[in-house]
Design a protein that fits this description.
By secondary structure, the chain is mostly helical. It is 46% helix and 5% strand. It folds into 2 domains: 67 residues, no CATH class; 226 residues, Orthogonal Bundle (Lysozyme). A hairpin with a 2-residue loop joins β5 and β6.
Length: 304
Amino acid sequence: MSQRLDLEYKMAYESPPWRFETATARQPQTTESEQNSLKHQSRLVPPTITKMMLKASIATAILATLASAAPVFNNARSPKIQDGSVADVAASQYLQFYGDGSADAGWPEKSSWIDFQTMFDTNAELMKQSCSNNQYGADNTDDEIGMIYWGIQNAAEQTHVDQRFILAVIMQESGGCVRVHTTQSWEGVLNPGLMQDHAGTHSCNWDGNTQYPCPQEQIYGMILDGTAGTSAGDGLAGLIGQAVAHNQASGTGADESYGQVYYQAARLYNSGSTSPIWSDLNNGNGATADYANKIANRLLGWIG
């Protein structure tokens, strides 16, 4: 409760039990002069009625405060969401990269990544049809897409993971469909939600039982589980930390300011952090070989 509302609450219940209030006439038969006279008359109002009136006004103020603070999930958060022309700005050519993810090996640095707003606007067109295209259920609503936008922003703020990297992984793992089905790793670990995270607890499609619309808490939970990690496994933030630690130990010194760290983290996210082949990010140890390549291309603006 805000200080102002808290003060109003104290004033209402610490004041004397009887209060004088001005009575306003509401009798249609009275003359104008009689009504003016009644407006200045005072009467005693029972404390129970006074408290009820104050409670109602305070409750209204509290609800108004909460409503003004609540996030709004709509197209205003992504103004170009319905503009099909934004796809024209996306990179039309898929590039192939080899080696360890470094700029010396030809991989793109962060300075060449597309900006987040353009990246989201472009991919929002895919999000509108990714569910039906993959037979996951009803397509995303504009409100659900707005919640993805808000969820990425907030997860990035909490974990300090670049929001573009979060979006790239979402598009790679689920196409941005909030009703994507849950997959299972060869080890038996369930991978639910927008980011197919490690044994997370948020999804709008458990065993084919879909939720429509997908609630805000589920959408944000999917994104946070994939970014921050779960009690059972790392998310993007932890894997970026592992990549930085490896680079420091190996003497390259690449940290979060280098694109290489994100391609390394993408490799770990897809294939696991057990015995990664750091010198060849296209070696997935049985997982998707070109996963890091696709993430790099998405960060350049490629959609597919």
